[in-house]
From TrEMBL:
It holds the Pfam family Rieske. Iron-sulfur subunit of the cytochrome bc1 complex, an essential component of the respiratory electron transport chain required for ATP synthesis. The bc1 complex catalyzes the oxidation of menaquinol and the reduction of cytochrome c in the respiratory chain. The bc1 complex operates through a Q-cycle mechanism that couples electron transfer to generation of the proton gradient that drives ATP synthesis. It comes from the Bacteria. This is Cytochrome bc1 complex Rieske iron-sulfur subunit. The gene is qcrA. Residues 1-14 have a biased composition (Basic and acidic residues).
Length: 359
């Protein structure tokens, strides 16, 4: 076989151009010609350049002012007041302040790069990159050239206004963190202590279970098999937003379900916490506090839509899937003389995320 291949190679004619024939050699990797450079107005007229520089640092200082306004709005419209007008104004004006600050910062940076920085066009040839001293020196030279072309080192107003805008843009976000750590006051001595705060809700002995949000009392006979009812304590329905309606509802909201009594596997110490298959569990997920509201009638599973934790209602709302660390707290219930559902006591453990219980 090797001899046959050699023979074919010898017999294959080699191509040669005919006498007088011109052969053109084309370089396929030749870079295209750059279009003629067109000078900007700022390159031609110093007055236009000065105006562009003023525009840039004005936008940066506008960003500073907007960041300061966002902090002022946080104080002028305190969300802790609970009033709807303050909550809406707080969200509106803080959002406008932060949005304007970031928009002005971005516009200033874009205008700086397009109108003020050097506009020279060049082709950078490819070369091998190695971590040698010469490479480091070249990197320093690049930074020096960039500083010279951008004018960062000599345009003091632009540089200082940029630094001020960047620093100020962080302040509104830092300020908003204050709302996550309420301080203890004489009126609310446990504001900074989450465990006792979440251990006390508006559920008390004899408190009626009512529909959310109407406040209509719930008769045990009206709770159908397989149903899931959103419940609040009767006293909560009469609260106004100024009196802390949202804060109390966030802790006290309950999901009421009815199963066949034989489907319930109740711990001996909780055997009298339900009534004829009707059970009540906190609606606040024990992972990060999302509302658990999706009930699967056939499997008796409760699903938290935020991070997919699942709880088995038939087995004490035990966690069967997801990141939740403990079962949902159960509200002990019974009925009054007229057959209406009432609470036997408050929750006997803190509601909400498990991390609040860490010391």
């Amino acid at each position: 076989m090797a001899h046959e291949v050699d023979a074919l190679e010898h017999e294959r004619p080699s191509w040669k151009p005919s006498p007088g024939l011109t052969v053109a050699v084309i370089d396929p990797v030749q870079p295209p010609e750059l279009p003629p450079h067109r000078e900007r107005a700022t390159d031609k007229d110093p007055a236009v350049m000065k105006r562009a520089v003023r525009t840039v640092y004005t936008l940066f200082y506008l960003s500073v002012a907007a960041s300061i306004w966002a902090v002022a709005a946080y104080m002028i419209f305190p969300i802790e007041s609970g009033r709807i007008v303050d909550i809406r104004s707080n969200n509106l004006f803080i959002g406008l302040g932060i949005g304007t600050a970031l928009l002005a910062l971005g516009l200033g940076a874009i205008h700086w790069s397009k109108a003020v920085m050097s506009d020279k066009e060049y082709i950078e040839p490819r070369h091998a990159t190695r971590g040698k001293d010469s490479t480091r020196e070249a990197a320093v030279a690049v930074f020096e050239i960039a500083d010279k072309e951008s004018g960062f080192g000599r345009r003091v107003m632009i540089r200082n206004s940029l630094f001020a805008a960047l620093a100020a843009s962080i302040i509104p976000g830092v300020t908003l963190f204050r709302g996550l750590a309420p301080q203890n006051t004489a009126a609310n001595p446990i504001a900074g202590q989450p465990v006792p705060l979440l251990s006390q809700t508006m559920w008390t002995e004899g408190a009626y279970l009512t529909h959310d949000p109407s406040g209509e009392r719930i008769r045990a006979a009206d709770v159908t098999l397989g149903s899931a009812v959103h419940v609040i304590p009767e006293e909560l329905a009469s609260l106004t937003h100024e009196e802390g309606y949202l804060e109390e509802k966030a802790k006290a909201i309950v999901l009421l379900m009815r199963l066949l009594p034989e489907d319930l596997n109740e711990a001996p110490e909780k055997a009298d916490w339900s009534y004829q298959g009707i059970v009540a569990y906190s609606k606040v997920c024990t992972h990060v506090g999302c509302p658990v509201a999706l009930y699967e009638q056939q499997t008796h599973h409760l699903l938290c839509p935020c991070h997919q934790s699942q709880f088995d209602v038939a087995n004490g709302a035990a966690v069967i899937f997801g990141p939740a660390a403990r079962p949902l707290p159960q509200l002990p219930i019974t009925i009054d003389a007229d057959g209406y559902l009432v609470a036997k006591s408050d929750f006997l453990e803190p509601v909400g995320p498990s991390f609040w219980e860490r010391h």
